[in-house]
C-alpha cells in the first residue's frame, strides 16, 4: 500500500493481484507514508524524513524505489519546510532532513551537540513568478530595487512597473522555507536584513503555484522546477544592479550567472544508520541523479 499526496488530498491505492482501487481520502497535514502490505502494516519504520517541499519529489520517488525493491517503510513529511527538516534532525525526530537552503550558523548553535552532515544532491533556482496577466501586460523583468519596493508595499499597483492598472498581491513564503531565504539573500543581502512585512503567506511549492496562477495580480517566490508545469504563471527575468538581464533558465542556473541559484540538501546527524546511508548513496547514484533531473533540477554529476 502506498499513501501519497495529491494537493490537499491523498490517494489510497490498494494493489492486489494486479487489481488497483484508487479512492480519494481527505487527510489533514502533509505526511506521506510508504508501507509494505499486508504483513508490513506493523513493520518497524526504517527511515523518517522531513523538510523541504522542493527536495520532496526526488526523495519521495526514491522512497518508493526502496518500498518496491526492499519492502522498507519510509515516512516523508514536508511540515515546516527546510527549517522543519533541520529541526527534526537536530531533535532526533527524523533520520534525514530535506533542505533547499544551507545550514546556518544559527542552526548549528541551536543544536550544538549535533554534528550535522549535509549532502548536496542537486541544484535549483528560485524564480520570481507572476500571474500570466501581469506578465502579458508588460512586466517581464525585475530588479532588486523594484523587488524591495513591491515587498515593502511602496509599489502596490503593477501600473508603476509598466503593466496594466492592477493591484499587486504578494504571496510571501512562510517562515522557515528555504525558498524565502534564497529570495531574501538576493533582495536584501541576507535574511536578517529583510524587513518585517504583512503579506498573505504560502507554504508548499504547489500551493504557491496554484495561488499565483489563480490571482490576476499575484507575485511570489517559487522553485524554478515548478514553473514549467503551469501555463498560468511566468518567471520574471532578473535585472542585475549593473543592468544585465538574466532569464531564469536551467542553463543560467547551472552556469552560476542566475543570482538566485541554490543547492538542494539531505541532512543527517553524525554516524547515520546503515539504511540511512544506503538511501543517501542511492540519491547520489546514477539512478538517483536521474530522479533529480526528472523533477526539473540539475544533477550534481
Number of extended strands? 17
Total number of domains: 2
CATH topology of the largest domain: D-Maltodextrin-Binding Protein, domain 2
CATH homologous superfamily of the largest domain - what is it? Answer: Periplasmic binding protein-like II
Oligomer: single chain
Q: What's the total helix number?
A: 10
Strand/helix succession: EEEEEHEHEHEHEHEHEHEEEEHEHHE
Spans of at least 5 consecutive residues whose pLDDT stays below 50 are: 1-42
Outline the biggest β-sheet.
11 strands, mixed
CATH hierarchy class name of the largest domain: Alpha Beta
Globally, the shape reads globular
Give the rounded overall mean pLDDT.
87
The portion of residues forming beta strands comes to 25-35%
What is the CA-based Rg, rounded?
20 Å
Distance between the termini: 33 Å
| Helix vs. strand class | alpha/beta
Helix content: 25-40%
- What's the architecture of the largest domain, going by CATH? 3-Layer(aba) Sandwich
3D architecture notes:
With 301 residues, the chain is α/β, with parallel strands linked by helices. The chain folds into two domains: 2-122 and 265-299, D-Maltodextrin-Binding Protein, domain 2 (3-Layer(aba) Sandwich), CATH 3.40.190.10; 124-261, D-Maltodextrin-Binding Protein, domain 2 (3-Layer(aba) Sandwich), CATH 3.40.190.10. It contains ten helices and 17 strands. It has helices at residues 56-70, 81-90, 105-110, 132-136, 144-151, 178-188, 205-213, 250-255, 274-284, 286-294, and strands spanning 2-6, 9-16, 19-26, 31-34, 47-51, 74-77, 96-99, 117-131, 141-143, 169-173, 201-202, 218-223, 233-235, 237-239, 245-246, 261-268, 298-299. Strands 4, 5, 6, 7, 8, 10, 11, 12, 13, 16 and 17 form an eleven-stranded mixed beta sheet that branches. Strands 1-2-3 form a three-stranded antiparallel beta sheet, with no helix packed on it. A three-stranded mixed beta sheet has the order 9-14-15. α9 (274-284) packs across α10. It is globular. The two termini are 33 Å apart. Mean pLDDT is 87; it is low at 1-42.
Amino acid at each position: 500500500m502506498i499513501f501519497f499526496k495529491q494537493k490537499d488530498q491523498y490517494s489510497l491505492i490498494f494493489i492486489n493481484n494486479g487489481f488497483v482501487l484508487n479512492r480519494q481520502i481527505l487527510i489533514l497535514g502533509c505526511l506521506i507514508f510508504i508501507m509494505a502490505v499486508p504483513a508490513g502494516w506493523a513493520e518497524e519504520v526504517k527511515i523518517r524524513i522531513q523538510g523541504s517541499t522542493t527536495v520532496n519529489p526526488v526523495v519521495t520517488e526514491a522512497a518508493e524505489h526502496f518500498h518496491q525493491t526492499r519492502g522498507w517503510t519510509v515516512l516523508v513529511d514536508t511540515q515546516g519546510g527546510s527549517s522543519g527538516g533541520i529541526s527534526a534532525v537536530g531533535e532526533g525526530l527524523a533520520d534525514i532532513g530535506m533542505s533547499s537552503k544551507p545550514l546556518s550558523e544559527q542552526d548549528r548553535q541551536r543544536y550544538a551537540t549535533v554534528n550535522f552532515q549535509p549532502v548536496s544532491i542537486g541544484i535549483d533556482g528560485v524564480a520570481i513568478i507572476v500571474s500570466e496577466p501581469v506578465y502579458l501586460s508588460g512586466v517581464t523583468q525585475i530588479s532588486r530595487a523594484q523587488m524591495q519596493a513591491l515587498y515593502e508595499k511602496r509599489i502596490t499597483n503593477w501600473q508603476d512597473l509598466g503593466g496594466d492598472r492592477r493591484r499587486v498581491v504578494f504571496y510571501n513564503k512562510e517562515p522557515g522555507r528555504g525558498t524565502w531565504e534564497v529570495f531574501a539573500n538576493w533582495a536584501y543581502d541576507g535574511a536578517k536584513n529583510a524587513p518585517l512585512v504583512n503579506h498573505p503567506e504560502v507554504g508548499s511549492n504547489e500551493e504557491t503555484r496554484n495561488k499565483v496562477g489563480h490571482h490576476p495580480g499575484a507575485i511570489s517566490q517559487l522553485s524554478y522546477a515548478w514553473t514549467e508545469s503551469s501555463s498560468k504563471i511566468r518567471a520574471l527575468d532578473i535585472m542585475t544592479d549593473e543592468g544585465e538581464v538574466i532569464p531564469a533558465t536551467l542553463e543560467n542556473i547551472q552556469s552560476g550567472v542566475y543570482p538566485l541559484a541554490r543547492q538542494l540538501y539531505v541532512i543527517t546527524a553524525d554516524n547515520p544508520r546503515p539504511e540511512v546511508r544506503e538511501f543517501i548513496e542511492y540519491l547520489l547514484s546514477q539512478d538517483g541523479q536521474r530522479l533529480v533531473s526528472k523533477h526539473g533540477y540539475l544533477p550534481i554529476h
